[in-house]
């Protein structure tokens, strides 16, 4: 009988042991806190279970047999939370708010620490807020971010240069020098974190191999405050920038505005070597480019308003204006014969100027529907207007010929307009999270090249060398993703569908290119965290890299009589497959990755013996693939001394069809290394010193083989006058070792050029804080009737 009674009571006994605790951990700003330690102790103070919160700050503890336990929440940045729980009465999920060690203070007293690395299920977060590198500008911070390499001002993530750059998840319509100028004029004090997203989730547009998202700080200080800043840079020539940032916050309204004015002279050294095997000649051109820009204007404005406790609206404007950049290049070219004697020469004088105007405007509305869901609507407008003019005179002195002079003039105009609108819905609880949304974008570009020369004795317009190019692209996307975070395991999967309709019209020769296609882009993630905080992750993502609009323009942009750049209106979009395995533990971060690219597009060069021309052409190569490993670790050797190590080893392969129709394979093992050490010289004045060294071994790009390069830098910053004045001293490329050699050698192609971008520099920057720098006691916002209904 007793066996029968035990059998009847067994379900009850089992259920009595299956107690569960659920909850979410947030901070006082209601931000979800991932990777926070959650511990359960019995009444004898013995540890029963230990886990960490998931990406959404949630946790679930199951299989607890005790009726009463003690819950302890720990995180280095917050005060430890303790609570005794009666599990027979505890039914509702817990909402735990962690507070800073010093919650109510009358003024900001912050000790700069090392940057914090957080590995989330779909990205790596490099938190630089209040760190010892926040005195740098945003561009320098990017170059120090784990997983990012910078060679001659070209950013790459895991070896790929196909990157979508966003600020607060909004696309930046700038590339190259324009993007660099914008980020150099963005103060590091305003950057909260940098997110490196090698496999972007479905909510991001599918363009680009990876996403680099810069998260800016929100203004949390009541009242008015401002920052006056200036920077002087001495390279071969001088540059400078000065500006003001202003902030105002009162109750529901928050305003931010900044303006920076830059000016200076930019210099770049280069020498081209072209060997023609057909006539056994060698052409050597030396081009030292010096450009003056008297006015670089960067403007930002942001307003946020809380309509009620459920609805927030924000408006952001960003502008970059460069009214005039100008210079005159004197480029001598010597032509050597087979006996290595100069038999001919010519000199090119290139007088040019350019201007650019970039504007972007975004508007966002966020509405909480209930405690678990919200709806976000974002509109984005952007425009890019550029003008380029050049007058090129060439004095020719060829063996056996009469010395003569050639002159041509080009006017290049381009205008790009972009509009997008996106709606996103999000629902989540402590375990599940669902996102879904739709996006529509429209791009319109117009480019015109007017070419005139004196071929007929006087300067005349040449229609056969002029060109007009119009391009339109419609893109419609739908996505949905689902995340499941039961505890130690985290899972996420998403699918994005994009339809693209494009049309390109070329005037000379007249040609219309149309295309329309649907593409599916799946993403998959899995992450496991052990009780001792070892974290393993596996992810896969499919991406697309659409050609830049300027790359589609087939107009020949001449550098001189014998060299020009040309785009390709028939460029194909590149399909990219990314596979990543990650491991993190105690600030060790390791990433094993594989990348496959189908028809990657890039700039290559080829020489044309019949005309002795060197042509730079943007085109598709057959395929590319790479695999490698990245390691990052920050060692805290002493409280005042830390060491940061970032290493990336990659095997890269590019397959291209040469001008002889043969398929070639270009491959290399590439090492990118960044080692830096920082010291706290005086804690009371935040006097910091950092020394670092970056090294890039030889690499490839299509037909190019790029030599290794390195740079050594030193940065020191200190605060004065009760920490209102921040002074920084920065030495870059101390030993002038960043020069590169870019070469092409196969079949009858034999050319290379030496490139140095004037990176050896010393800079001094000053920042003065004025106005209200105090953090007042946080006011408790009374719940409105709308919030009470949630």
UniProtKB/TrEMBL annotation:
Record's keyword terms, sorted: Cell outer membrane, Membrane, Receptor
Localization per record: Cell outer membrane
Keyword Cytoplasm: no
Transmembrane regions listed in the UniProt entry: none
Cited InterPro entries: Beta-barrel_TonB_sf, CarboxyPept-like_regulatory, OMP_b-brl_3
Chief location: membrane
SUPFAM superfamilies: Carboxypeptidase regulatory domain-like, Porins
Stated name of the protein: TonB-dependent receptor
